[in-house]
Amino acid sequence: MKIICFGDSNTFGYDPRSYFGGRYSADSRWVDILAEKSGWEIKNYGQNGRSIPGFDMEYELLGNIFEKEKAQLLIIMLGSNDLLQGLSAKSAAARMGRFIKNLHYSAERILLVAPPPFKSGAWVETEAQIEASEQLSEHYRELAGKLGIAFADAAEWDVQLCHDGVHFTERGHRAFAAGIFYVIKDLKEI
């Protein structure tokens, strides 16, 4: 099976101990751990700082890239950067809905993942940011139901976050990989 993982720095594998955008080693990044454990072909489209795309040009470009890859599953985990920039959980979910609808990608081939909620840390300055991150999963769950796509909530996987309150620790990446592996195995028709 071929899978595309489209996300932000937590998909990229950003190492928060790095000052210059470095990554954890492959054996500590959830995407690579998942590939090793499953034997699936996995393409990592994670990028530091990525927000939910919101422009027609982005929709078209990404839709073309995803179709060219001919993957059986597209995993999307975004929203953290949108919340850090002040967007509400409801607005982030609305933006995510527009993005997914404009991809023109088969609903049965999409898995939307709600990132784990923030904790207080160097990047998380307010209780409102934590509350928004906790609310995001319910908005994404509702969106997934409306769009007929699969949904997973990373809050259920005990993903450890580092000192900044946003990025996964190495242990967090392992927990995330284990959680999403079982979600993917349970999906039908992929």
Could you walk me through the main structural features you see in this protein, from its secondary elements to its overall organization?
This protein is an alpha/beta fold. It has a single domain, classed as SGNH hydrolase (Rossmann fold, 3-Layer(aba) Sandwich). It is built from 7 helices and 5 strands, in the order E-H-H-E-H-E-H-H-E-H-E-H. It starts with a strand and ends with a helix. The mean pLDDT is 95.
Please sum up the structure shown.
With 190 residues, the chain is α/β, with parallel strands linked by helices. The protein contains seven helices and five strands; from the N terminus they run βααβαβααβαβα. It has a five-stranded parallel beta sheet with strand order 2-1-3-4-5, sandwiched between helices.
Comma- or semicolon-separated keywords:
5 strands, 190 residues, 5-stranded parallel beta sheet, globular, Rossmann fold, alpha/beta
Topology:
Blueprint: E1 2-7, H1 9-12, H2 30-38, E2 41-46, H3 56-69, E3 73-77, H4 80-84, H5 89-103, E4 110-114, H6 127-147, E5 150-153, H7 170-186
What are the secondary-structure elements, in order, as H or E?
EHHEHEHHEHEH
Number of helices: 7
What global shape is seen?
A: globular
Task: Sketch the major β-sheet.
Answer: 5 strands, parallel
**From the coordinates shown, what is the CATH architecture?**
3-Layer(aba) Sandwich
CATH topology title: Rossmann fold
Query: What is the typical, i.e. mean, pLDDT?
Result: 95
Assembly state (oligomeric): single chain
Strand order of the largest sheet: 2-1-3-4-5
- Return the CATH class: Alpha Beta
Q: Please report the total strand number as a whole number.
A: 5
Tell me the helix content.
40-55%
Task: Assign the structural class, choosing from mainly alpha, mainly beta, alpha/beta, alpha+beta, or little secondary structure.
Answer: alpha/beta
Q: Over all CA atoms, what is the radius of gyration? A: 15 Å
Identify the CATH homologous superfamily. Answer: SGNH hydrolase
Proportion of strand residues: 5-15%
